Amino acid sequence: MTFIAKQCHVSLTTVLRVLKSVESQLPQQLKPRSFPEVLMVDEFRSHASYEDKMSFICADGETGELVDILPSRKLDKIIPYFNRSPLEEREKVKFLVTDMNAAYFQLTKNVFPTAKLIIDRFHIVKHLNTAFNDFRVREMKRLITNKKKSKANKLKSNWKLLLKNQTNISISEFKTWRSFPSPKYHLLTESMVIDRLLSFSSELKEAYDIFHLLMYHFRNKDDRSFFELLKNLPDSLDTQFRDKIENLISYEEGIRNALKYNFSNGKIEAKNTHIKTLKRVSYGFNSFTNMRIRIFLINGLIKIK
């Protein structure tokens, strides 16, 4: 605010007054409104509201246009806001795109009865990656306990290789590896390095095979094979790893729709990044209203005359 005042050669009070003058152009949260056919919902850390540290944001899933920002992400605040609009308006929402926050799933039951739930694909992949990485770290700790720190270090330094898409793993390009130095090890391909890493632990190899088979079905949008594998995991699979990936079964409807339709939360995640940048250059916000005005301004949805 102070920087804007200096740039425009006016007082800080004038800047605040001009911002307040456009507040009437903001969506009125106490009045009914219409919603897009594809609605993306998410939250971001605002610290500008006395109601909640996390604020709620929703946007058009097709155009990316911001719909509104609420001071709290809690359902007891969100549901009444949406329910102020008549049912025929809410029934226009055909798809609700969200992350794996189960609270938002209630919106399809209580607010948008005709909407299909879609879970953002990025968060599904992130969940699988985290489950496998957590297991790898536990195997590293086990190796260290068994006085095999060298093997644990190799798993640590090559963790990205274990997550790499198997179709992109090189089987013909030989090169040196810092974790497999010469002369003990000759030139190795990525495939050869992975084989050596998985030889350290049969449990890790089994988890690796399951993880990449799930990712294969996911990339090919084969929801039938994806859930068939999830529901028939081998008993020998590590218990903690299995529990984490089996958790995806509770999101079955949203995941199946994510593989069927191309909508994602990418546009709203980009807006969250812009908001984080705005907060950083503004040194935070004490007023939720001022923050909301600034966000709508940078999105070109309100104009200062």
UniProtKB/TrEMBL annotation:
Pfam families: DDE_Tnp_ISL3. Signal peptide: none annotated. Residues 39-295 form the Transposase IS204/IS1001/IS1096/IS1165 DDE domain. Keywords: Plasmid. InterPro entries: Transpos_ISL3, Transposase_DDE. NCBIfam families: transpos_ISL3 (NF033550). This is Transposase. It comes from Enterococcus faecalis (Streptococcus faecalis). The lineage of its organism: Bacteria, Bacillati, Bacillota, Bacilli, Lactobacillales.
